Amino acid sequence: MASPAPVLLILGGGANVGSSVARAFAAKGYKVASTSRTAREQGKDGIDLHIRSDLSDPNSVTQSFQRVVQALGPPSVVVYNAAAMKANPPDDPLSLTVEDLNHDFQVNTSSVLAAAHEARVLFDTLPSTASRTFIYTGNILNKVPIGPLLDLGIGKSATAHLIASASEAYANKGYKFYYADERKADGSPAYAAISGQAHGEFYTQLAEGKTQIPWLATFVAGTGYVDFSK
Known about the structure:
Low-confidence stretches: none
Distance between the termini: 48 Å
Radius of gyration: 17 Å
């Protein structure tokens, strides 16, 4: 009897990275579920199940996981690809309001914690042969402040700490947690020029890798993982 197809869940299935990651995993034989705030055509980009969900409400994460498990089975790979931000004047970061920060923090960190929790619970039920990988789409903001992006930087930095903690705590179980950050070849940030295709290729490598690379998974399009920490 053939083994069931592995399942990928993408939280925040946007048109660039989200769609590219979905296609890359579908090509590897995965059943793919995605979520976003807007409706999406079923079957497009290899997506078998699309769920409308607002990640500013962490409670929606549990509901999405439940629907995926019921429809496709427990996901062995979870990608968190959502982000929210309110830009501030570059010369006045402290003009960011507490209300805006708290709202976006739900998307950038609180719902990530909810998703990582749900993933860990399901990973406990999966065999050791399953991928059991959680990937968060990050950027350089956990390392370098960028003038108008205090809001997003606080969220990225907090979530980087979350991913680092989970990576260390669950390594003995074989669970992989990554903060993925696309860079240019010189180590500078990719900014808006991020490559959806490169994310799809790298994320499948992370999911299928037999050993865990460092949780801070910096990568370059066409090259893969590059350690820019030195």
